[in-house]
Structures are given as C-alpha cells and as structure tokens.
Amino acid sequence: MIPVKLPNIYAGNYSLLVILPLVLVFISLLLIPQVPYGIDLRGGMLITLQLNAQVDSAQIQSALASIGVEESEVGTYTNPSGNVAEITISTDPRMNTIDDLLTTLDGIKTKYDSAESTLARLRAEEKQGSDRTSQINEQQRIETDLMAQAITVESDVFSTATSFAGGALSVQKSPVDDIGKIQKACSDAFTEAKDDYKEGIINTLSSVASIQSYSLEEVSPTLSKLFISKVFGVAMLSAILAVVGIFLIFRTLVPSLAVICGAVSDVVMALGAMAIFKIPLTLASFATLMMLVALSLDTDMMLTIKTVKRKEGTPRERAYDAFKTGFAMTSTVIVAFLVLLALGMITHIATYYQIGAVATAGLFGDLIATWMFNAVLVLWHLEGKYGKILGMVGIRR
Amino acid sequence: MTKFLGWIGDKRVLFVAALIVASLLLVYFNGTHFGLEFTGGTRIPITLDKPVTKATMDDIVNTIKIRVTKFGLTQVVVRSVGDQQVYVELSQSTSPEYISQIQSILKSEGKFESIIDGQVALTGDQIVSGSIRDMADTSGSMVRWGVAFIISQDGAKQFANAAYGKGNYPVNLFLDRTEDSALLIKESYISNASLSISEVKSALEKVAGYGKNSVIYMDANGGMTAQQAVDAVVAANKTKATVSENETEIISLLKANNITVDAKTESDMHPDIVNLGLGGVSVNEWPAIGLLSAPNLSPNLATGQSVQQFSIEGPAKGASYQDQVIFAQAEMKRIRSILSGGALPVGIELGSAITIPPSLGKEFLKYSAIGMVIAAFVVFLIIAFRYRSIRHLAPLTFVAASQMIILVCFMSAVGTLDLSTIAGLFGTLGTSVDYQIVMADELIGKAAGGKDEAKRRLEKAGYIITRDVGILTLVMLPLLFSNIVEIIGFVTATLLGSVLGITITLLTYNAVIDHEHKD
C-alpha cells in the first residue's frame, strides 16, 4: 500500500539515535546568543535604496561610519527595476537617552500639575479666610524644585539632540519657565534631531551611491520595547498553557516530559539554524517559532498517543507506525514552507523569507527531535529502561 | 469505484459543500480586502505612549480623523491596530511633500482660546493640564453637566481683567479660531423666527470680527454669481476664504484667483443663534470660525477678583432621565476636548511613512498566488505518491481543498489578506492534509474488521487530532490576543485553518466510513 518504504529505525539498537539530536541541540544552544535581532525587536532603521548602478557594501558602511553610524548591515540584490541595497541601522544610543529624558520630563510635569492644583485649592481656601501660608510656601518650594529639574532636563535634551543631529538645531529652548512649553520645545528638538539624523544618513548615502528612490522604515525605542514586552509575555503564557495542556492529556510524568522535551529541542534547533543562516528574530519569525511549538507538539503527541496509550503489537512496531504517519505529516508542511521560502528569496519580501526559513529549519529539526530523540525516550519508558537506570544508581521505583 | 465515492452524497459532506458556497457568497457580497503591501499606497504608523482602552482608542482614532479631514484630506484611512498603535493609510500614490504635510497635521494640536467681549480671557496653555474633570450632577430629577478645571495664576489674573464688569456676557470658547478670512455664508442659514435678520447679522459680524474675519452673504440682493462672490472676497481684502465644500464652482474660482480655500462641511457653516431676550443675541456655536460653545459668564466671576478654580456647567437636555445622562456625558466630553485643544489623551510618536508602489504590490500578489498554486500542487503530489488510490485520495483532497477555499474566502472577505496572512495560508496548506493522514493511516489495511472496527479506529484517530488541535489552540491563543498586528493574520490563518480542518475531516471521514460499510 505504501510505495515508499521508510527504514524501520527502531528495529536495531535505537538508543544510538539520540546522539544526533543531542549534538544538534548542544551546538544550537551554544549558537543561540548569536541569533540576530530584527529591527522590530531591537529598534532601528531599515533603509531600502533603489539604485541606478551597483554599489559596494563596504563603501556604504565606511561612508556611514564616517558620520558616526558604526553599526550597520548592508545587503544588496537586484529586482526588476535594477539594483537594490538594504541597510539596517541600529538605534543610536543618544536616541534612547533623549527618549528616557522625555519620559522623565513627563513625570516632572505630572508632579508640577498636581502641585499647581493643590496651590489653586489652597489659595481659594485662604481667600475664604483660612491661613494657608505655610502650605502655600511648601507647594511653591516644590514647584521651584520641579522647575529647576525640568530646566536641567531641557538642557540635557538639547545638548544630546544637538550632538545627535550633527549640528545646531533651529528649535530654541523655551524662553519662559513653563513646563508645558519646555516639554514642547524638547519634543520639537527631538523631532528635528531625528529628521536631521535621517537626512544626514540619506545625504551620505547619495554621496556614495546613485539613488533612484528610497524608503525608510523605522522602529522607535518605544515601539521595540513594547514589542519585546509583548513577545516575552506571549512566550511565557504559551509555554505555561502548553505544559498544562500536555499534563492534562497524558497525566503521567515521563510521556509528558518527553513531549515537552521534543518541542523545546525543536525550538532550540530552529534558533540554532537562525544563528547559522543569519535569519533575524522578528515578530514574524517569533510567531513562526510559536507555530513550530504547536506543530512539533502535534507529531510528538501523535507518537506518544500511538505508542503509550495503545497496546497492539510491540512498542517498537507502534513507534515505527507513528514514524511513517508523522514523516508524511511533516513533509507536506516542509514542502509548503519551502515554497514560501523560495518566494521570499525571489520577491525579497522579508516576512515570507523569515517565516519560510524558520519554519523549514524548525520542521527539519522537528523530524530529528521527534523521531530520534522523543521516540527513543518513549521507547525507553515502555521497555522499562528507566527502571534499570534508576536501579543502577540505587533508586527503586 | 462508485463504492468508494458514495460518501459524496452524504448530508455531512453536503453540509461542507454548503459551507463552501456560503464562503463564496461572503466574498461575493463583502468583496476581498488586500493589505497595503498588495494594493500599494502609503502608511504612517503612530505609536501611543501607553496602551489604552477600547473607548479611549476610539476617541483617539476619531480625533486623528478630525484633524486629518479638517485639512481637506478625505482619502485617508485611520484605523486602530491593537491597543497601542494607529495606522494612517493613503491608498493613492503620494509625493513626499504630501506625506510630510500629513505628518505635520498629525502632530499639530489645536489652540484653545476664550474670548469675552472681544478680549482674550484665557488660552489653552493657561489651563493646568490634567486638571480638567467632569462634575455631572445626576442626583436630582434634573441632570446637570459640568466640567471643572484649574488655571494658572497668570491665567487667573488675565481672566479677571477681561471678565471685569461683564457678568452674563457670553464666554466664547474657540478651538483653532479662524483668522483673517472671508466667510461665505447665506442669509438662509440664519433665518430665525423670533429675531430680525439685522440683529442676527450684527451678532454674527461681532463674533466673526474677533478673528478679523468678514462675512459675505452669497444670497443677498437676489443672489451672487460665483464670480461676484469671489469679487466680494477680493473687495474685502482677504486672501483666504472659508466656504462650504458643496460650493464647488466658487471653490475652483477662488483657487484660480490665488485665494486660499478653507473648505468646511455645510453644517459647520451654519451658526447656532440664541435669543437671550431683552434684545440680546448670542452666537452659541459656529464651527466655521472655530466657535464651539458660548456659555454665559457668572456674575461672581466678573468682580475683578482672580480665581483659579473654574467650571463650565449647564442643565442637560432630554425628555427622560436616561436621555439627560447621555446628553450630559456627550456635552462634558465635548467641552473637555475643546478645553484641551483637541489634544489626544496620550502622547503619540509618528513613525516613518512606508510607501509601496501599486505596481510592486501587484507583482507581490501575482507571485504569492503562483507560489500558493505550486505549493498546493506539490503537497498533492506527495499525498498522491503516498496513497495512490482514489479511495484514500478522494476524501483527502476534498477535505484539504474545501478547507483552503473556505479559509481563503473568509480571510479575504472578513479579514485582510496581507503578507502575514498569506504566510499563514502557506502553513495551513501544508497542515491541511495532516489530520487526514492520521485518519487514513489508521484506516489503511484495517478495514477488514468491518464497520465497528473502522468506527473504533476513526475514534482513535479522532482522539489524536482533537488533542493536536487543542494544543495548537492553547499555544497560539496568547499570540492572537497579544494585539501584535504585524502577525495577527498569520496566527488567525493558522488557528482558523486547523479548527476548520478538524471539523471538515471528522465530518467527511465519518461519512466515508458509513458509506464504505453500508452493506
């Protein structure tokens, strides 16, 4: 019935199978710190240049370095309209500094406004005959303090913004001691500095390359912080839900742990592949990792249900049976994502490329993790090998 | 062969067919929606300083819409994405100048001014921000609305001077006061049964004069031609004209004469006139000049004493108590928004505009469609190679195809087909056959046991795939509710695809088993 005969990998000494996944997981673990972050998670700019002529990446990088942009990555390709260069620039640290200063200023303003409200109430009470002199003095002292702080922050913002803009700003500091106006001046200065910075970069680029048109995609520090916190929250919640769900389905420790191990090693291998092939961790590739967890749990559970919860034939036969089914399942998904990956490489659509690449790598990892690692753990369990191992170290069940 | 295809007429299978027809009808009536990546256009992303509630988000989207439309940019779509982002999208291709114009409009905040008898009594920056609060009185049978706020000491002095001796005068609240413009209106806008036209005209000219605007009545003396109206604007020595957007002929003529056109909606041009009795006429509202409300000055505030705590209040209109509460709420929201200069409740950060040329979008869509067909074909080849029998292939293909048709129709008619949705559809294409593979493998070669055995095996396979879908849902659900709009399409397609997949698989395979074991 089944024309392609997959070898029965569980017939012989199947324990040796775990070597490959263990080695791969180990290598991947070492590589994980090298997984690059996409601009949506680290903040920064992606500039896409449509060029009239080919350009040398190193030339672009050194030109950018000459205006103080040290960290940049340049990729080039061709599309129907000609040559394209994609430049990724990390967020300048000064931008984060100003962003933090503006947040501080916001806090000062809130405090000042509340002092102002209190003062208004106190003055009204005094008009009605109560003595509020000491409280009014106290509030006024607070206001003076806050104003002094605001002015310090303002000059910090202006000096950082001036250095960031690479020249004098046309925006002036607030002429009067008014926090609202200081705030406005600071935010205008920040906007102008950002515009000048971008303009400086584009001007520098057009000095080394003949630019037909360009587009600029920017992820601000605020936005990337938001994405990171969301990604982290989602990952934690999904992990908890998955673990709870799996324990509810199996209600025994070893099979549940085996399923979870399978999914974790799958993600680890996918991350390893991302480090090797320089596929950035972005919102798209993160969502793909989550999908991989779900898909890998699918085959892991199919394996475990077929081998642990059933009694016909030997465990090895049941595992082989599951392997044939699981192999077919995963291969159709791999094929679909391979097409998406190819599409991403042809069109240079980053979303397609990242999702296609991460999914393909992760699904190959899933084949290895499920059928060479997870299956072996389950078989050890069913053939009573844990008892032997535990017995060897003197623990009785 | 017919023995293996008998299930096609089963009512469960017909139900799936009905779902397909329904989803096709959905596309027919709802149309398909494509993301900016495919249609081409420009998107300006806006990030809010902090996440906001649904109601606040609606307010923000509305305020941004008002800002944008106030400047005559009607081809702009403003939509919220999640709880902390807003997209402003333009469908047509645009010049960089146009984009930067929109960006500056988005950043602009309104300017609040209150004028008593021609003198500026209070400006927006004198109001202590964060001090504006509602103070509705809903305890009695008559609901009263009120908005309280605190002004700075300087503001209090300025107000006391302007208000001195002006008890019961209207306090005109302006937001973005129109200045130095010729207002082209009609006498028919201001006909009022209880007042003479000259009384009304003098009241209008008075408030319009606060901004050095002149009023031109287009229907006076038997009506003006468009040319005469423009001549009147020139005669009034104005280089700007405020006119209803319906007056297209006048607008084009004004533009031809190098006069800046400030087009307003027809209803904004209509003033709201109130008869105060004793010969007093007040203009309560006239959006064309930025006059949004004109409460009366309490005589207590007209004594020259400076006061920092203020309130604007009034009785709520409405027949029932419920209506009055609704009125009060709406009125307080309106006053709050005027006082804060139409400011947004949270700070915003504008992102860089992203422009995709329509030709490139079309190209992307074409390639995506071709890729989808190739992927479907290759997946089919794998399955065909593996099972090689119509008995297994027919239900498998039927389930996968109906799942994909329904999913694509639903996602494009109800959602939006963007890059991440398409990527999700690729994944679903790959997994669309997975549940059937589990089913088919359970049933292969073991059908000899008769119908009961087959049913038992079906249940076993069903056990596996329902657990699979359950876990997939658990893992993906947090992403679905994360409000990360960039990947929501991917997640929705994946989740919806697997739920659809299992439903159709179970329906179809039960039908298949029943028909294979009929005798």
Task: Lay out the secondary structure.
The complex is a heterodimer of chains A (397) and B (519).
Chain A lengths: L18 H13 L7 H4 L1 E8 L5 H10 L5 E8 L2 E9 L2 H35 L5 H33 L13 H30 L2 E9 L1 H30 L2 H24 L6 H26 L6 H33 L2 H33 L2 H8 L5
Antiparallel strand pairs in A: 1-3, 1-4, 2-3
Helix pairs in contact in A: 1-8, 1-11, 3-6, 4-5, 4-6, 5-6, 7-8, 7-9, 8-9, 8-11, 9-10, 9-11, 10-11
Chain B lengths: L1 H4 L5 H20 L5 H4 L1 E8 L5 H17 L5 E6 L3 E6 L5 H12 L4 E5 L2 E5 L9 E2 L9 E7 L2 H11 L7 E5 L6 E4 L11 H13 L4 E4 L8 H10 L4 E5 L3 H9 L3 E5 L1 H4 L2 E6 L2 E6 L5 E3 L15 E7 L5 H19 L8 E3 L3 E3 L1 H30 L2 H24 L5 H13 L2 H10 L6 H31 L7 H29 L3
Parallel strand pairs in B: 9-10, 9-11, 11-12
Antiparallel strand pairs in B: 1-3, 1-17, 1-18, 2-3, 4-5, 4-8, 6-7, 7-16, 8-15, 13-14
Description:
The complex is a heterodimer of chains A (397) and B (519). Chain A has 397 residues and is α+β, with helices and mostly antiparallel strands. Chain A folds into two domains: 14-39 and 220-392, Multidrug efflux transporter AcrB transmembrane domain (Multidrug efflux transporter AcrB transmembrane fold, Up-down Bundle); 44-219, no CATH class. Chain A is built from twelve helices and four strands; from the N terminus they run ααβαββαααβαααααα. Chain A has a four-stranded antiparallel beta sheet with strand order 2-3-1-4. The longest helix of chain A is centred in the N-terminal third of the chain and has 35 residues, at 93-127. The radius of gyration of chain A is 30 Å and the shape is flat. The model of chain A has no long low-confidence stretch (mean pLDDT 86). With 519 residues, chain B is α+β, with helices and mostly antiparallel strands. Chain B folds into three domains: 2-36 and 357-516, Multidrug efflux transporter AcrB transmembrane fold (Up-down Bundle), CATH 1.20.1640.10; 41-108 and 349-354, Alpha-Beta Plaits (2-Layer Sandwich), CATH 3.30.70.3400; 112-341, no CATH class. Chain B is 50% helix and 17% strand. Chain B has 17 helices and 18 strands. Chain B has helices at 2-5, 11-30, 36-39, 54-70, 96-107, 153-163, 197-209, 226-235, 248-256, 266-269, 321-339, 358-387, 390-413, 419-431, 434-443, 450-480, 488-516; strands at residues 41-48, 76-81, 85-90, 112-116, 119-123, 133-134, 144-150, 171-175, 182-185, 214-217, 240-244, 260-264, 272-277, 280-285, 291-293, 309-315, 348-350, 354-356. In chain B, helix 13 runs antiparallel to helix 14 (419-431). The model of chain B has no long low-confidence stretch (mean pLDDT 84). Chains A and B meet through helix 4, helix 6, strand 4, helix 7 and helix 9 of A and helix 12, helix 14, helix 15, helix 16 and helix 17 of B.
